[in-house]
Each structure stands twice: as C-alpha cells, then as structure tokens.
Design goal:
Length: 202
C-alpha cells in the first residue's frame, strides 16, 4: 500500500484544489514559514480519521475549513482525498478488491464529516480501522509533529508502549476489544432488566 496522491480543497490555507503527488522514495516539502507545510501533514492525519480538533491546532473541527482572507471569502466545506496504490493487495480485508483506493473526507459547516472509500459512503470507524490494521493512521508514529520528539522523551512508559502497538498494527484490536466490552456491558444490563421482570412476574 503506497500513498500516491493527496488532494486538498478548502482545507486550511489550501482554498483552491491542490494536488500533492507522492512518488516512491523520499518526498520533501520546502517553503517559507507559514506557507502550509504542517497543514499538509494535518490533512493526511485528518483524512485518516483524526477526530481531535486540538491535533489539528484548532478549537473545533470546523476550524479546518478555509476561514477566508482579505481577497477570498470563507468556504463552506473542506475536503481531503488520499489516493493509495493497492496493486500489491496489502489493504486490510474488506478494502482489498481494487488496485487503487481513494479515501475522501469532507466536512461541511453545521453538518459535520462524511467519509467515502472508492465513492462508497463509509463510517469514520471504517476508515480508522482500515489504517489501524495497516499499521498507520492519524496517530501513527510515522507522522512526527513539531515538538513530538521531546514529548516522547518525557512520556510515561504506558504512552511509549502505545507507539510500539501502533507500529505492530494491533491498535485496531484494542478498539475492537473496547467495542466488544461495551456490547457485553449492554447485554449484562439487559439481562439484569430481564431478571427484574421475571422476579416481578414470579
Ligand atoms: P512553519 O514553517 O512556520 O512551521 P508551515 O509552512 O508549516 O509554517 P502551516 O503552519 O502549515 O505553515 O500553515 C499556517 C498557515 O495556514 C497560516 O498562514 C494560517 O493563517 C493558515 N491557516 C490555518 N488554518 C486556516 C484556515 N482555517 N483558513 C485559512 N488559513 C488557515
């Protein structure tokens, strides 16, 4: 699975549709301060399902939408598309039928986020799981924020372990375990209610 293209539309400073082609090997992005280099990395994290506005350097998720400039009005939506070459068929099960995957996330003011994989509507969870199972995603240690190295040095062992888990591709399993535990709890509560009803009838 290789990321081949990132397209940003109305995302932060990228008001007009902008394509970043990612070739094999090393890709460098250079530019003056404030030109949008970090915004590119945030777009990558965002399309993979990032749901913490703080990680996007914003107060709310709608802050990723182009907020307007002296010569351009604000936009009503932001969209990021990530194209993945899947010709090696290494995508996780459920997403492995095609040679190319296009993941699209769009946020519309007062509506929220919607996701698509190859034009099909999917849930945020599906996209997060796709990347978690592929040992990457919004929280991948491969995406290094400014200041993150010093954070890591000072981190508690438990937080450092999370990085190894992400790299091993087992963070999706933790999410599934958490969801299974919630379902189990719900089932236990329902059983307790059934017991109450049975007691009343007895
Ligand atoms: P540095 O080299 O200083 O780290 P950078 O190239 O990484 O800078 P970014 O931090 O990616 O730059 O981009 C910051 C720019 O993005 C600022 O000019 C800011 O005004 C602009 N920006 C951020 N959010 C929005 C938004 N919602 N609408 C319009 N512009 C935005």
């Amino acid at each position: 699975m290789l990321f081949t293209k990132l397209r940003l539309t109305g995302f932060k400073s990228f008001v007009d549709p902008t394509d970043l082609l990612i070739k094999e090997g090393l890709t460098g992005v250079v530019g003056p301060n404030g030109c949008g280099k970090s915004n590119l990395l945030e777009a990558l994290r965002w399309v993979m399902g990032e749901n913490r506005p703080k990680a996007m350097r914003g107060g709310g998720m709608e802050d990723v939408i182009f907020a307007g400039a002296s010569t351009r009005p604000a936009r009503n939506f932001a969209e990021v598309s990530l194209v993945i070459d899947n010709s090696d068929r290494l995508a996780p099960a459920g997403f492995n039928d095609e040679d190319q995957l296009e993941i699209v996330r769009r946020i519309t003011r007062d509506v929220g986020s919607a996701y698509k994989v190859n034009t099909k509507d999917v849930r945020a969870r599906d996209v997060q799981m796709l990347f978690a199972d592929a040992s990457t995603g919004a929280h991948s240690p491969a995406l290094v924020r400014q200041g993150q190295i010093s954070e890591l040095i000072n981190a508690k062992p438990k937080n450092r372990r999370r990085i190894l888990e992400e790299a091993a591709g087992i963070s999706g399993l933790y999410q599934r375990r958490h969801e299974a535990e919630l379902k189990l709890k719900g089932a236990e509560q329902n059983l307790a209610r059934v017991d109450d009803v049975v007691d009343q009838l007895a």
